């Protein structure tokens, strides 16, 4: 558990550092994006509730419920990349490098999440609980990183 918190904290710092230098005013103007982050928090809670309810015999239904959450995550990552690209010329070289590193780490975590999702889809009845927990843990780490990053940007743009 401690290692996961360290990794999550490290990822958050990279994302926050990389994005803090990407014109915070771009985030301040992004009203719909802020709403979508709140939607993602709600989706995460709902997905957790759904996956807890489904046993291994309802695996296919649970997997169907997880797919929209993954698609939402992919859209958020794409929007983040677009924001970085739009502000690239105004960024310092160090900000560009931190942004590259942050996106690389987010992509790596997305691959981990995809692997957990694949395991969830293929899990046997006996392995269902373990696979479900692994997927939820990976999704939770990814989601919390985004939520914390948005909170940090809101603080910076409010100052």
From TrEMBL:
Superkingdom to which the source organism belongs: Bacteria
Keywords for this protein: Coiled coil, Signal
SUPFAM superfamilies per the UniProt record, alphabetical: Apolipoprotein A-I
Signal peptide per UniProt: 1-28
Coiled coil: 63-116
Protein's name according to its UniProt entry: Heavy-metal resistance
Source organism (scientific name): Desulfonatronum thiosulfatophilum
């Amino acid at each position: 558990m401690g290692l996961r918190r360290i990794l999550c904290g490290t990822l958050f710092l990279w994302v926050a550092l990389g994005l803090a230098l990407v014109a915070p005013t771009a985030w301040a103007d992004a009203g719909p994006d802020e709403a979508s982050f709140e939607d993602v928090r709600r989706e995460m809670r709902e997905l957790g509730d759904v996956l807890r309810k489904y046993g291994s015999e309802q695996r296919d239904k649970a997997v169907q419920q997880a797919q929209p959450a993954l698609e939402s995550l992919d859209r958020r990552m794409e929007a983040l990349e677009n924001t970085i690209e739009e502000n690239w010329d105004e960024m310092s070289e160090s900000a560009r490098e931190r942004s590259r590193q942050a996106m690389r780490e987010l992509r790596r975590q997305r691959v981990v999440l995809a692997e957990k999702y694949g395991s969830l889809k293929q899990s046997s009845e006996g392995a269902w609980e373990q696979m479900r927990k692994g997927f939820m843990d990976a999704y939770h780490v990814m989601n919390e990183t985004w939520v914390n990053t948005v909170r940090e940007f809101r603080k910076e743009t409010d100052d």
